[in-house]
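Please, structure for the following, as tokens.
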Amino acid sequence: MAAPTLQQPSFLLANLKADSTTKPLLQRCQDLVKIIDEYPAKELHLIFPWLVESVFGSLDGIIAGWNLRLLHSRSNEYNIAMEFLNPSGPMMKLVYKLQAEEYKYEIPVNYLPGPVKACIQEGVLPDCPLFHKKLQFPLSGLLTLNIALNPFEFFMFNFACCLITPKVSQHGSSTDSAYFVLVDTYLKYFLPSEGSVPPSPFSDSRGSVTAPSPRSSSGSFAGYGVHSPSLLKHHIFHQPSVNADPAAQEIWRSETLLQMFVEVWLHHYSLEMYQKLQSPQVKEPFSPTEEHVLVVRLLVKHLHAFSNSLKPEQLSSSPSAHSHTHTSPLEEFKRVVVQRFVQQKLYLFLQHCFGHWPLDASFRAVLETWLSYIQPWRYTGEKTNAQPEQSRTENRTVPDKWWSFVQENLLMYTKLFQVFLNRAVRTDLVNAKNALMVFRVAKVFAQPNLAEMIQKGEQLFLEPEHVLHHRQPRGYLTPGQGGSYLSSRQRVVTDMVFRVKSHVYSLEGQDCQYKQMFGTELRGAVSLLTRLIQIIAQARQTAKRISDHSSEVAANNSFLSWFGLGSSELNNTFPGAEPEESGECLKKTHEFLDRALENLCQIFKVRLGQLTQLISNLGSSQDDGNCKQLPDCIQSENGLILTDLGRRQFGGHMEALCSRPDFLGRLGRHYLTDPESNSRLKQSPMSRQTVEKSRRPRLSLRPLASYRTLLLLLLLYALGALLCFGPASSTALILAGGFLYGLLMTLFGDKLKTH
């Protein structure tokens, strides 16, 4: 086949736009592959912004693009899109082809995440180096400020924004969509656990992301807030030059992809903005969707696997020793990726979700994202840890090597746990899905060794500063220089304290008021924990009561179904029942809450006797409340038995009905009293008091036990069967006949007696 004639760039773009509305996706992709291969970068540069927008959609959401979030494997276009957007596919080839040149693509600052946009508009340099040295200053001022991105950055920015941009007529998606699979593919390609990132097919030395500098372990306590905005206020009109380390160019695409994902997906809340959001009058600037949170969880899980793939000898080496040995930039990147790039923004993101997410089962996505982050030991590549958590019947001990991770992420455990408790006490725990979430959290925190790690981290944070200064002088000597090994141990403790305090102050601010997870505040008499245990115990009993009621109704339905009167909706056997609140789900609720209580007692060292007493007190109070709704009764070996008072407790209503002089009173007397009692009163040897007692209105079912009545009913049902009436129809006719007989006797009974 002859190669197509090269067109002028303006005609090329016009033809591509025309083809986008007439040709199917397969043919359009085939044409694009030829164009990318045959046209020079100078001409491809003009169609690149349009092509990116046509694939991912416009940043304002008006243009939907290929709808990658709704494109699933069962669609015919799924494989076409995946092949075209593959990290080694035609689209990325175009990116690399343009990356080898000096091309830049502008994006309005208004489309940047809120805190980044606010910093730039206030004349403050953002903390993320991704946006350094990229600002374009138009003559009209800062209101129309743009940032200039290279082709790779531009592509990844639009790809990341595709997740959070509300599209026209787009309703939901799932984890098997083309977008979700592409995120997973890009993460595995650019952040590989094994090997290195494949090189670009075109020569390029323009990586613009600086290599992260090693964090110093020394410094004054005043420097804890390393992410404090006050330390970042470099004026944007005096931007420092970004001198990229040549060795860092090996991973500049990995860093760019990660920073772009983190900024676009997580950086919607700054510390100052979050503190303002605590006021109910402030409208939240951004509300993530369940799909958004699921993609964030995918990112968290992959980053843990990426970081845990660091070789043991490099993981154990100190930064000072590491600087004298050869380590690839990718391995160094693995060492700092979670703490340096993700922790702060993910913490604020999760804290916002915990506080603003609806109190329903959709919160499970947020919960699992949090639990994935605080359990990096699940993503070490070992087969035992690759199993789903729900399938493990016993908690595994958290290895000691994770002490430093727990301490440097203390707030992720303690603060978010307390915020979760605050949600749990306001949630309907009779719902099996909500009960499962409480069980999941309790199960994770009950892992052996984890509670001790958290307690140790809290103790380190609460170390008085003056004691540390006394322990650790500024100029200390190593054992080789005449110092003692005791001073070396003190130095290690001081370094641990510094890391914990630095972590807390950087996330919560220098003036934060820390609440202990294992302090007296959480375990007090009226604390959240005690309230949660009470609510769990109450929900257990409610679930059991509803489950027992459902079983009774199901049994009754099985009997009534012979008459055609059984309910076809066995799942909804009580008013207001939800599918997850019926049948087997309620049994699961009881099981989840039972195990959650056991785990909470294990975490906080609550004695089983205290828990049993609390539950029994709650149960007795509920039983008292239920008994007040029943007639007067006594407790026996066989359960509750009505007393004489209990048998007559509804008698007042019947006496009031029978004492009426109208037709309803006569009808009530026919059914509820014995019409022959007057004649027996004169002839009976019984005392007048006994006979008067028998004349009181009452509901008697004794006639149904007589052989004559049973034989009559059998004959009537047999007659109905001969006349082709079913059991339900025969029953209805018998009841109607009985009511009609009573009605006639009420109307004409007195006249018949006179005759």
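The chain has 31 helices and five strands. The mean pLDDT is 77.
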